[in-house]
Specification:
Elements lengths: L1 H65 L11 H88 L1
Helix pairs in contact: 1-2
Organism: Perkinsus olseni
Keywords: Coiled coil
Protein name: 3-dehydrosphinganine reductase
Length: 166
């Protein structure tokens, strides 16, 4: 029974090692996701800066269209009006693209938050497994000592049996 327990403990330790390696890989993936999150944050800051620039351009464009007296200076100027419309269209497309990027960024942040939660859980699980592993290793060492004592006592019994036979 002692030998079976020892082998079972050794199998448990081996299984824990495999689990530990898998969890370590998950933790590495979590670190990669965190790096992507940092890149997304930087992109978000850049996007916010571009939005501010776009708002400034829109305000400037609105000021040009109204003219100094607040009147629409594009009346009767078809070429200029067409130019303003294309600028407005371009700015509108830029704003739509930026909005789409913000939506994607928010989704990525949500995914990252979920990934961080999972990574945290995995890290906690790794710690639990390491604690369990060290306990199993102590038990295994105790079993080895007990096995050595058993072998020694068995040898003593064999010797006593031999002495009584003589």
């Amino acid at each position: 029974a002692s030998r079976d327990e020892c082998e079972a403990l050794q199998r448990s330790v081996a299984e824990l090692e495999v689990s530990k390696e898998r969890l370590a890989e998950e933790a590495r993936r979590g670190a990669e996701v965190e790096e992507k999150y940092n890149l997304l944050k930087a992109s978000e800051e850049l996007l916010a800066e571009r939005e501010r620039e776009l708002e400034e351009r829109e305000a400037s464009l609105a000021g040009v269209e109204r003219g100094p007296e607040g009147e629409d200076s594009t009346q009767g100027e078809a070429a200029t009006k067409g130019g303003h419309e294309s600028d407005i269209d371009v700015q509108l497309r830029i704003a739509e693209t930026e909005h789409e990027l913000l939506v994607k960024l928010e989704e990525a942040e949500k995914d990252l938050a979920e990934e961080k939660t999972a990574t945290s859980a995995l890290t906690n699980r790794i710690r639990e497994l390491e604690t369990r592993e060290s306990g199993l290793l102590r038990q295994l060492d105790a079993q080895k000592v007990s096995r050595a004592e058993f072998d020694e006592r068995a040898a003593q019994v064999d010797q006593l049996v031999e002495e009584r036979k003589v």
